[in-house]
């Protein structure tokens, strides 16, 4: 049996392999149900003004610099709802553990879940617990599903956009228009480098903490400013996968400048040491925004007033005279940024 006939780690790594799997297999389930449904291939769906999302977390190690699997499981689903423009309200929590899993570790994870849910102002309302035989699972898997409603800030944000366009009522890629500015809320690559430096046997040490955090309160403040066409967190596949997704779904090109992309020096050094592409690294506490140019300054001011957006910067713009994603390099050349095959590191979220 060839690799074409089996599932590999690349099929869950957030790049072209995963997108092909979803389109060729899971899209058979699509029946065009909902205002934003499965056909949008986004991280959340909208049904009767209710936003829903689900995510499973298999990160290794389960405790890492800056966070743990519990904080990740709450933040990940909260952020998927927030990126659609929704206000997350409640989560379900399903945990599958390996026989022999330390009770003390479970208590630490549950405590982290509780603290992160309080930080995000969401409620854990239902759940499920399963235990599998020792050796049939690597420690623990967590699934969180969430629901959210339509906040009044989103209606204000949409009204500001209607000065120049007729957008969707939600934050989706088809809202993008030529001239929109691409803003990233802070330094990229922190989460993936943190995970790598926390793993045994990797061979390098980096003083980098994961950026994992719930972004829903920040998003509500940004929606009040207005002018946001779309928002998405650059998780698996990183900035490269996100921008290619926007370009494909909007039918427009995206031009970015390498020198404007915020990267911590420790992360840059680790990337060079490991031979990785910073644009493909996973993040769990950042948002990328497509913003109408007349709102760029105000959005950046709001971001800079929040600790989660302290290092926000504009990295490029949407254009109709190019195809795909093009990056102007620091030496003045141009580089085509393709969709990655998949994250270079398995089990990062």
UniProtKB/TrEMBL annotation:
Pfam families: AIRS, AIRS_C. InterPro entries: HypE (IPR011854), PurM-like_C_dom (IPR010918), PurM-like_C_sf (IPR036676), PurM-like_N (IPR016188), PurM-like_N_sf (IPR036921). It comes from the Archaea. Residues 42-148 form the PurM-like N-terminal domain. CDD domains: HypE. Residues 177-321 form the PurM-like C-terminal domain. GO terms for biological process: protein maturation. Belongs to the HypE family. PANTHER family: CARBAMOYL DEHYDRATASE HYPE, HYDROGENASE ISOENZYMES FORMATION PROTEIN HYPE. This is Hydrogenase expression/formation protein HypE. It comes from Acidianus infernus. The lineage of its organism: Archaea, Thermoproteota, Thermoprotei, Sulfolobales, Sulfolobaceae. The gene is hypE.
């Amino acid at each position: 049996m060839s690799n074409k006939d089996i599932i590999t780690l690349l099929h869950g790594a957030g790049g072209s392999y995963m997108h092909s799997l979803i389109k060729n297999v899971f899209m058979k389930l699509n029946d065009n149900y909902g205002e934003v449904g499965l056909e949008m291939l986004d991280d959340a769906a909208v049904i009767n003004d209710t936003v829903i999302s689900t995510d499973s977390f298999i990160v290794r190690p389960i405790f890492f610099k800056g966070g743990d699997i519990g904080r990740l499981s709450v933040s990940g689903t909260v952020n998927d709802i927030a990126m659609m423009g929704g206000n997350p309200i409640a989560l379900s929590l399903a945990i599958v553990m390996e026989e022999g899993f330390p009770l003390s570790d479970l208590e630490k994870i549950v405590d982290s879940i509780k603290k992160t849910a309080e930080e995000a102002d969401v409620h854990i309302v239902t759940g499920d617990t399963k235990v599998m035989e020792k050796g049939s699972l690597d420690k623990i898997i967590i699934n969180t599903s969430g629901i959210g409603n339509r906040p009044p800030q989103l209606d204000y944000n949409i009204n500001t956009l209607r000065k120049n366009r007729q957008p969707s009522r939600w934050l989706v890629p088809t809202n993008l228009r030529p001239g929109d500015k691409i803003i990233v809320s802070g330094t990229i690559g922190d989460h993936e480098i943190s995970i790598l430096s926390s793993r045994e046997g990797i061979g390098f040490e980096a003083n980098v903490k994961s950026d994992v955090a719930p972004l829903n309160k920040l998003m509500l403040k940004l929606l009040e400013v207005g002018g946001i066409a779309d928002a998405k967190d650059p998780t698996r596949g990183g900035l490269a996968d996100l921008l290619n997704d926007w370009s494909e779904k909007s039918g427009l090109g995206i031009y970015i400048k390498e020198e404007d992309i915020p990267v911590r020096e420790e992360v840059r050094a680790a990337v060079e040491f490991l031979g990785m592409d910073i644009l493909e690294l996973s993040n769990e506490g950042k948002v990328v925004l497509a913003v109408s140019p007349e709102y760029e300054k105000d959005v950046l001011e709001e971001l800079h007033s929040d600790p989660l957006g302290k290092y926000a910067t504009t990295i490029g713009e949407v254009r109709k005279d190019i195809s795909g994603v093009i990056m102007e390099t620091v030496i003045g050349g141009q580089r085509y940024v393709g969709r990655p095959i998949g994250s270079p590191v398995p089990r990062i979220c």
